[in-house]
Design brief:
15 helices, Fic-like fold, single chain, 5 strands, 4% strand, three-stranded antiparallel beta sheet, mainly alpha
Length: 392
């Protein structure tokens, strides 16, 4: 990163690192809030995003069980957010690992994806008595890097050394972006925390867009910043009452438009392109909210089809309960079924066998003991790449 990369509209300033020019410079973003210049496109997109989010909230409020679908949506987000950071684990890999953690995972980095689920669940649980704060960021970060790649980068602690962003193996002087040095970083993250708790005149989604930029520009951790920043979007939507539950995730949008995502963040820093960044962010909210509505509707339709088939056959209520469990986490073992249904393992296995014969579950291990069953149709709805049109 070079000082000459910044224009007069830059959203911050640079400080020189070291005593000689070749050691490079670091960027310190201006405090929030920014001056946002509204144009007709941004206003229109804000309306579209709000409308789409309202439809998604409506789906969430009509769920027969508050936890139905949310578990599956969280796992989809974990897979996609981790994929941005280079992991190769699929939804199947994650579900198999969760169902049988003592088995050798098919993909080594699946534990990183599992940690993302755990960090998100921790944040959702902590929101009951702890607002978004530096403390919560550190707690989630500690879970995210526990026992995985990056665990040497002080999990759960803000950095005490300089970091930078760029191609693998690049030096600090050749980096694409260099966030604030540690002392200035501490001041910037303090200011961001204060902003999180202040009243704002910005529309909630615009405020969320500028918060996400600010966190990424500060880059307070040595590793895992992108994942924590994306976690914060979902948590703030819930904490501020914009959504009734964690149903919206932007990682799929950021992953599809990865180069545009990174360029948008960098252009705010170097050239103050707030309107372009906010427009990009709002378009993502609109697209992913409608995608969430579409997937939720299809999953609920699938659930009704399954339940109707077993209702017609006068199947016991236990089987219907087991079907519902699959929509939260579409993997099953006899041990989990016994726990959920509060029955003996043999009774649990008989219910699983009925779902296998009906084509709802498929055994994946090929073993006689400690078998894992996946619900392929549910996983297909969650995993397929689709792009619904935003609402008119």
């Amino acid at each position: 990163m070079r000082a000459e990369d910044l224009t007069e509209r830059a959203n911050g300033r640079v400080v020189r690192l070291g005593r000689v020019p070749h050691e490079g410079v670091a960027f310190i973003p201006d405090p929030l809030p920014p001056d946002v210049l509204w144009d007709s496109q941004t206003v229109s997109l804000l309306s579209t995003a709000d409308r789409a989010l309202g439809r998604l909230a409506g789906v969430g409020q009509t769920l027969p069980n508050p936890h139905l679908l949310i578990g599956s949506f969280k796992r989809r987000e974990a897979v996609l957010s981790s994929r941005i950071e280079g992991t190769q684990a699929s939804m199947d890999d994650l579900l198999l690992f969760e169902a049988a953690p003592t088995m050798q995972p098919r993909v080594p980095d699946v534990r990183e994806v599992w940690n993302y689920v755990r960090a998100l669940e921790h944040g959702l649980d902590r929101q009951k008595n702890l607002p978004m704060s530096k403390r919560l960021m550190r707690e989630m970060h500690g879970i995210l890097l526990e026992g995985v790649r990056g665990q040497e980068h002080t999990p759960g602690e803000f950095r005490r050394s300089q970091n930078w962003i760029g191609p693998p193996g690049c030096s600090l002087a050749d980096a694409t972006f260099v966030p604030p040095p540690p002392s200035e970083m501490c001041e910037a993250i303090d200011a961001l925390e204060a902003y999180l708790h202040e009243p704002s005149t910005l529309p909630p989604l615009v405020r969320l867009a500028v918060i996400h930029y600010q966190f990424e520009a500060i880059h307070p951790f040595l590793d895992g910043n992108g994942r924590i920043g994306r976690l914060m979007i979902t948590l703030l939507l819930c904490m501020e009452g914009i959504l009734p539950g964690p149903l919206l995730y932007l990682s799929a949008y950021f992953e599809r438009r990865r180069s545009e995502y990174y360029a948008g963040l960098l252009n705010v820093s170097c050239d103050g392109q707030w309107t372009e960044w906010i427009t990009f962010f709002l378009r993502g909210v609109a697209e992913e909210a409608m995608d969430g509505v579409d997937r939720a509707t299809r999953l609920l339709d699938l659930r009704e089809r399954y339940r109707e088939a077993f209702h017609s056959a006068r199947s016991p209520a236990l089987l219907l309960k087991l079907i519902d469990e699959l929509f939260g986490a579409p993997a099953m073992t006899a041990a989990r079924a016994a726990e959920v249904l509060r029955v003996t393992p043999s009774t649990a296995q008989r219910n699983i066998d009925k779902l296998v014969r009906s084509g709802i579950l498929r055994e994946t291990t090929g073993r006689k003991r400690y078998r894992v069953f996946l619900a392929d149709e549910i996983i297909r709805v969650l995993s397929e790449q689709r792009l619904p049109a935003p609402p008119a």
